[in-house]
Design a protein that fits this description.
The chain is an all-alpha fold. It has a domain of 59 residues. Helix content is 65%, strand content 0%. It has 2 helices and no strands. The two termini are 32 Å apart. Keywords: Membrane, Transmembrane, Transmembrane helix.
């Protein structure tokens, strides 16, 4: 079944980069505020930055890619044929 949505273009790529930047800024600000308020100890702050923040960024990237139309499945694939020159 063919999708009626066009492929994402350069505007979607810019929106993805901007969304990743905004997501990273929001995440780091939230972690910083939690540390500043005393809710995170130094050890928990380091754990959050090193292990949890990258996982958060993966979820942000997945959400943005779904929203911007980068989610393609097997039905969107086309066969590739080698042409002789």
């Amino acid at each position: 079944m063919n999708s009626s949505r066009p492929a994402p273009g350069p505007d979607a790529a810019r929106a993805f980069r901007l969304g990743m930047f905004a997501g990273a800024l929001i995440g780091l600000t939230g972690i910083g505020l939690l540390y500043w308020s005393g809710a995170l100890t130094l050890l928990l702050f380091a754990y959050t930055i090193v292990l949890l923040f990258p996982v958060y960024l993966v979820f942000v990237a997945v959400g943005l890619s779904l929203w911007l139309g980068y989610n393609k499945d097997a039905t969107a694939l086309r066969p590739v044929y080698r042409t002789e020159r």
